[in-house]
Amino acid sequence: MGIFTKFQMKLMQINSWHSLGTMDGSADASGVLEGTDTGSQKDRVVAEEEWLQKWETGNIWFHKERGHPLLQKYLDVLLNGRSGLRIFFPLCGKAVEMKWLADMGHSVVGVEVSEKALKEFFAEHSLPFCEEPVPEISGAKKFQTTSGNIALYCCSIYDLSSSIVGRFDGVWDRGALVAVNPCDRQRYVSLMITLMEKNSSYLLVTVSYDPNKHKGPPFYVPESEIKSLFGNHCEIKCLQKVNDFSDRHRQWGLDYFLEVLYILKFVT
Protein backbone atom coordinates (compact mmCIF):
# COMPACT_ATOMS: atom_id res chain seq x y z
CA MET A 1 0.00 0.00 0.00
CA GLY A 2 1.44 3.35 -1.03
CA ILE A 3 2.02 6.29 1.30
CA PHE A 4 -0.72 8.30 -0.41
CA THR A 5 -3.28 5.57 0.28
CA LYS A 6 -2.16 5.32 3.90
CA PHE A 7 -2.62 9.07 4.26
CA GLN A 8 -6.13 8.78 2.84
CA MET A 9 -6.97 6.12 5.42
CA LYS A 10 -5.72 8.42 8.14
CA LEU A 11 -8.14 11.07 6.92
CA MET A 12 -11.00 8.92 8.17
CA GLN A 13 -9.64 9.49 11.67
CA ILE A 14 -9.20 13.22 11.16
CA ASN A 15 -12.82 13.68 10.16
CA SER A 16 -13.84 12.65 13.67
CA TRP A 17 -11.39 15.00 15.39
CA HIS A 18 -12.27 18.43 16.72
CA SER A 19 -11.59 21.52 14.65
CA LEU A 20 -11.38 24.33 17.16
CA GLY A 21 -10.97 28.10 17.42
CA THR A 22 -8.24 30.29 16.02
CA MET A 23 -5.91 32.57 17.92
CA ASP A 24 -8.45 33.97 20.34
CA GLY A 25 -7.54 32.19 23.59
CA SER A 26 -10.59 29.92 23.29
CA ALA A 27 -10.85 26.68 25.21
CA ASP A 28 -9.04 23.73 23.68
CA ALA A 29 -10.25 20.15 23.29
CA SER A 30 -9.85 19.54 27.02
CA GLY A 31 -11.93 22.59 27.90
CA VAL A 32 -8.83 24.24 29.39
CA LEU A 33 -7.85 27.77 28.41
CA GLU A 34 -4.41 27.82 26.86
CA GLY A 35 -2.05 29.99 28.87
CA THR A 36 1.24 31.71 28.22
CA ASP A 37 3.10 30.17 31.18
CA THR A 38 5.71 27.66 30.00
CA GLY A 39 6.59 26.55 33.52
CA SER A 40 10.20 25.51 34.08
CA GLN A 41 10.65 24.58 30.43
CA LYS A 42 12.23 27.90 29.53
CA ASP A 43 15.47 26.74 31.17
CA ARG A 44 15.40 23.18 29.82
CA VAL A 45 18.27 22.23 27.51
CA VAL A 46 18.48 18.97 25.59
CA ALA A 47 21.97 18.25 24.25
CA GLU A 48 22.50 17.07 20.67
CA GLU A 49 23.94 13.85 22.08
CA GLU A 50 20.59 13.01 23.66
CA TRP A 51 18.87 13.14 20.27
CA LEU A 52 21.61 11.03 18.70
CA GLN A 53 21.17 8.49 21.49
CA LYS A 54 17.43 8.27 20.83
CA TRP A 55 18.12 7.28 17.23
CA GLU A 56 20.88 4.85 18.19
CA THR A 57 18.64 3.06 20.70
CA GLY A 58 15.49 3.20 18.58
CA ASN A 59 13.70 5.41 21.12
CA ILE A 60 11.98 7.34 18.34
CA TRP A 61 8.38 7.42 19.53
CA PHE A 62 8.07 10.79 17.76
CA HIS A 63 8.47 9.21 14.31
CA LYS A 64 5.22 8.55 12.43
CA GLU A 65 5.64 5.52 10.19
CA ARG A 66 2.54 6.33 8.16
CA GLY A 67 3.07 10.05 7.92
CA HIS A 68 1.08 12.84 9.50
CA PRO A 69 -2.64 13.07 8.63
CA LEU A 70 -2.70 16.85 9.08
CA LEU A 71 -0.27 17.27 6.19
CA GLN A 72 -2.55 15.23 3.96
CA LYS A 73 -5.60 17.21 5.03
CA TYR A 74 -4.00 20.63 4.57
CA LEU A 75 -1.60 19.87 1.74
CA ASP A 76 -3.49 22.18 -0.62
CA VAL A 77 -3.00 25.02 1.85
CA LEU A 78 0.75 24.44 1.74
CA LEU A 79 0.98 24.07 -2.04
CA ASN A 80 -1.57 26.79 -2.85
CA GLY A 81 -2.08 25.42 -6.36
CA ARG A 82 1.62 25.44 -7.16
CA SER A 83 3.74 22.62 -8.58
CA GLY A 84 7.45 21.89 -8.56
CA LEU A 85 8.07 23.58 -5.20
CA ARG A 86 11.18 23.47 -3.02
CA ILE A 87 10.02 22.21 0.36
CA PHE A 88 12.10 22.20 3.54
CA PHE A 89 11.87 19.68 6.39
CA PRO A 90 13.74 21.05 9.44
CA LEU A 91 14.96 18.35 11.88
CA CYS A 92 13.55 15.86 9.40
CA GLY A 93 14.50 12.52 10.96
CA LYS A 94 13.30 9.91 8.46
CA ALA A 95 9.91 11.51 7.79
CA VAL A 96 8.02 9.48 5.19
CA GLU A 97 6.33 12.63 3.90
CA MET A 98 9.61 13.59 2.20
CA LYS A 99 9.25 10.65 -0.21
CA TRP A 100 5.56 11.38 -0.70
CA LEU A 101 6.13 15.02 -1.69
CA ALA A 102 9.09 14.14 -3.90
CA ASP A 103 6.92 11.62 -5.73
CA MET A 104 4.47 14.46 -6.40
CA GLY A 105 7.19 16.34 -8.29
CA HIS A 106 8.48 18.63 -5.56
CA SER A 107 12.11 19.08 -4.54
CA VAL A 108 12.70 18.20 -0.88
CA VAL A 109 15.51 19.36 1.38
CA GLY A 110 15.93 18.22 4.97
CA VAL A 111 18.38 18.60 7.81
CA GLU A 112 19.03 16.19 10.66
CA VAL A 113 21.88 15.59 13.13
CA SER A 114 21.51 11.79 13.06
CA GLU A 115 23.21 10.10 10.13
CA LYS A 116 21.50 6.87 11.17
CA ALA A 117 18.08 8.48 10.68
CA LEU A 118 18.94 9.70 7.20
CA LYS A 119 20.39 6.39 6.03
CA GLU A 120 17.34 4.58 7.39
CA PHE A 121 15.13 6.89 5.33
CA PHE A 122 16.86 5.93 2.08
CA ALA A 123 16.98 2.25 3.00
CA GLU A 124 13.33 2.01 4.02
CA HIS A 125 12.20 3.59 0.74
CA SER A 126 14.75 1.70 -1.39
CA LEU A 127 16.16 4.97 -2.71
CA PRO A 128 19.65 4.97 -4.21
CA PHE A 129 21.68 7.94 -3.01
CA CYS A 130 25.11 9.48 -3.09
CA GLU A 131 27.05 10.98 -0.20
CA GLU A 132 29.29 14.01 -0.34
CA PRO A 133 30.83 16.52 2.06
CA VAL A 134 29.47 20.04 2.46
CA PRO A 135 32.48 22.32 1.87
CA GLU A 136 30.99 25.24 3.81
CA ILE A 137 30.33 23.16 6.97
CA SER A 138 33.11 21.24 8.69
CA GLY A 139 32.16 17.59 9.17
CA ALA A 140 28.77 17.92 7.49
CA LYS A 141 27.49 15.45 4.90
CA LYS A 142 24.91 15.72 2.16
CA PHE A 143 22.90 12.68 1.15
CA GLN A 144 21.09 13.07 -2.16
CA THR A 145 18.99 10.72 -4.24
CA THR A 146 20.51 9.88 -7.59
CA SER A 147 17.46 11.51 -9.17
CA GLY A 148 18.34 14.69 -7.26
CA ASN A 149 14.86 15.42 -5.89
CA ILE A 150 15.68 14.72 -2.22
CA ALA A 151 18.74 16.25 -0.51
CA LEU A 152 19.30 15.67 3.19
CA TYR A 153 22.00 17.44 5.19
CA CYS A 154 23.56 15.77 8.22
CA CYS A 155 24.60 18.63 10.46
CA SER A 156 23.24 21.15 12.94
CA ILE A 157 20.44 23.19 11.44
CA TYR A 158 22.19 26.32 12.72
CA ASP A 159 25.07 25.64 10.33
CA LEU A 160 22.78 26.06 7.33
CA SER A 161 22.18 29.28 5.41
CA SER A 162 20.41 30.32 2.25
CA SER A 163 23.79 30.43 0.49
CA ILE A 164 24.14 26.69 1.13
CA VAL A 165 20.60 25.34 0.72
CA GLY A 166 18.85 28.17 -1.12
CA ARG A 167 15.36 29.41 -0.26
CA PHE A 168 12.10 27.52 -0.02
CA ASP A 169 8.54 27.81 -1.26
CA GLY A 170 7.17 25.69 1.57
CA VAL A 171 8.05 24.25 4.98
CA TRP A 172 6.62 21.30 6.88
CA ASP A 173 7.61 21.90 10.52
CA ARG A 174 6.37 19.02 12.63
CA GLY A 175 8.55 18.03 15.57
CA ALA A 176 11.07 20.78 14.87
CA LEU A 177 10.14 24.03 16.63
CA VAL A 178 8.75 21.96 19.51
CA ALA A 179 12.07 20.09 19.77
CA VAL A 180 14.31 23.14 19.73
CA ASN A 181 15.51 24.18 23.17
CA PRO A 182 13.34 27.10 24.37
CA CYS A 183 16.40 29.33 24.71
CA ASP A 184 17.17 28.74 21.01
CA ARG A 185 13.70 29.42 19.58
CA GLN A 186 14.45 32.97 18.45
CA ARG A 187 17.66 31.79 16.78
CA TYR A 188 15.77 28.99 15.05
CA VAL A 189 12.97 31.23 13.81
CA SER A 190 15.40 33.91 12.63
CA LEU A 191 17.17 31.28 10.52
CA MET A 192 13.92 29.89 9.13
CA ILE A 193 12.79 33.36 8.07
CA THR A 194 15.99 33.82 6.04
CA LEU A 195 15.27 30.55 4.22
CA MET A 196 11.78 31.53 3.04
CA GLU A 197 10.96 32.76 -0.45
CA LYS A 198 8.48 35.58 -0.94
CA ASN A 199 4.90 34.28 -1.06
CA SER A 200 5.94 31.04 0.62
CA SER A 201 3.85 28.93 2.99
CA TYR A 202 4.90 27.33 6.28
CA LEU A 203 2.83 24.61 7.95
CA LEU A 204 3.74 24.50 11.63
CA VAL A 205 2.62 21.89 14.15
CA THR A 206 3.00 22.75 17.83
CA VAL A 207 1.76 20.94 20.93
CA SER A 208 -0.31 22.18 23.84
CA TYR A 209 -0.37 20.70 27.33
CA ASP A 210 0.33 21.73 30.93
CA PRO A 211 4.10 22.47 30.92
CA ASN A 212 4.20 22.25 34.70
CA LYS A 213 3.50 18.53 34.42
CA HIS A 214 6.03 17.55 31.73
CA LYS A 215 9.50 18.94 31.12
CA GLY A 216 9.59 18.21 27.37
CA PRO A 217 10.48 17.69 24.63
CA PRO A 218 8.24 18.14 22.84
CA PHE A 219 8.03 21.58 24.35
CA TYR A 220 4.86 23.58 24.84
CA VAL A 221 4.81 26.67 22.60
CA PRO A 222 1.81 28.93 23.32
CA GLU A 223 0.01 30.82 20.58
CA SER A 224 1.22 34.12 21.99
CA GLU A 225 4.81 33.04 21.42
CA ILE A 226 4.09 31.98 17.84
CA LYS A 227 2.82 35.50 17.20
CA SER A 228 5.82 37.02 18.96
CA LEU A 229 8.32 34.93 17.00
CA PHE A 230 6.78 35.11 13.53
CA GLY A 231 4.24 37.93 13.62
CA ASN A 232 6.42 40.66 12.13
CA HIS A 233 7.24 38.57 9.08
CA CYS A 234 4.11 36.71 8.04
CA GLU A 235 0.38 36.23 8.36
CA ILE A 236 -0.54 33.58 10.94
CA LYS A 237 -3.67 31.48 11.09
CA CYS A 238 -4.49 28.58 13.37
CA LEU A 239 -6.07 25.90 11.17
CA GLN A 240 -6.93 23.17 13.63
CA LYS A 241 -6.44 21.85 17.15
CA VAL A 242 -6.47 18.09 17.45
CA ASN A 243 -6.92 16.01 20.58
CA ASP A 244 -3.88 13.70 20.38
CA PHE A 245 -3.94 12.41 23.97
CA SER A 246 -2.57 8.88 24.36
CA ASP A 247 -1.33 6.46 27.01
CA ARG A 248 2.18 7.86 26.53
CA HIS A 249 0.99 11.32 27.53
CA ARG A 250 -0.85 9.87 30.50
CA GLN A 251 2.43 8.24 31.59
CA TRP A 252 4.03 11.67 31.37
CA GLY A 253 1.51 12.80 33.97
CA LEU A 254 -0.58 14.87 31.57
CA ASP A 255 -4.35 15.29 31.50
CA TYR A 256 -4.56 16.48 27.89
CA PHE A 257 -2.32 16.82 24.85
CA LEU A 258 -3.17 18.74 21.68
CA GLU A 259 -1.52 19.16 18.33
CA VAL A 260 -2.02 22.68 16.98
CA LEU A 261 -1.61 23.39 13.28
CA TYR A 262 -0.79 26.86 11.92
CA ILE A 263 -0.31 28.18 8.43
CA LEU A 264 2.21 31.00 8.13
CA LYS A 265 2.08 33.02 4.93
CA PHE A 266 5.19 35.00 4.01
CA VAL A 267 3.59 37.67 1.89
CA THR A 268 5.38 40.31 -0.16
Task: Label this structure with key terms.
single chain, 268 residues, alpha/beta, nine-stranded mixed β-sheet, 24% strand
Provide the residue-averaged pLDDT.
89
User: What sequence of helices (H) and strands (E) makes up the elements?
Assistant: HHHHEHEHEEEHEHEHEHE
In terms of DSSP E residues, the strand content is 15-25%
Largest sheet: 9 strands, mixed
What's the β-strand tally? 9
- The N- and C-terminal alpha carbons lie at a distance of 41 Å
Number of helical stretches of at least 4 residues:
10
User: What sort of overall outline do the alpha carbons produce when their principal axes are compared?
Assistant: globular
Helix content: 25-40%
How many whole angstroms does the radius of gyration measure? 18 Å
Sheet with the most strands: spatial strand order: 3-4-5-2-1-6-7-9-8
Uncertain segments = 3-30
Q: Structural class, from secondary structure content? A: alpha/beta
Task: Characterise this structure.
- By secondary structure, the chain is of the alpha/beta class.
- Helices cover 28% and strands 24% of the residues.
- The protein contains ten helices and nine strands.
- It has helices at 3-14, 48-57, 69-73, 75-79, 97-103, 115-124, 162-165, 185-194, 223-230, 247-251, and strands spanning 86-89, 107-112, 129-133, 141-145, 150-154, 168-174, 196-208, 235-243, 258-266.
- Strands 3-4-5-2-1-6-7-9-8 form a nine-stranded mixed sheet, with helices on both faces.
- The chain is globular.
